[in-house]
Amino acid sequence: MIEIRKLTKETIDLLFTVEDRRLDSERVVVRPKQGGFELSYRATPGSAWRVGNAQRDIFQDIPAWLDGSEKSVFFAWLDAEIAGQILLETYENNLARIRDIRVDLAVRRRGVGEAMIALAADWARQRELFGLYAQTQDVNAGACQFFVKCGFQLGGVDMLRYAARSRETIQAAGLRESALFFYQFIRQGNR
What is the pLDDT of residue 85? Predict the structure, then answer.
């Protein structure tokens, strides 16, 4: 059984304890099409395990995250074991931003991620926001497939978002990671 609980002072030590590891073996190929984008995937030479960026620096203002009005953290539990984490915040253009979502590698594909996305949509509705926004990269094919499966659509690509990273600047533009912006609208009137 999946249970989702809000961050409390007692559970703050659980932040970022859910493993955020993924196997990168594909790259997302984005092609424009009328009314949006088409995604396909191509294998990359060799596979590599990667660990996501924990972004712990966002918790400099812990009281705001505990308050829950503009920012919230939730933990997902599966069969009484911590299985996932999602960080939400109100964002520009009347959207809720999924700042971080992760599901423990051992329990992926068991509905934990989908349950957290459903909770995020409810959180946005309670704040009368129009939808959800999430950012990932074209090297994280699993995240892209997950967002599409959950009803998100790709709304934009930024090929220069990571260009200033020291490791990235020496790479040719076609080899650099690109930022992908996904949206899910939950209320009418903002499409």
Answer: 96
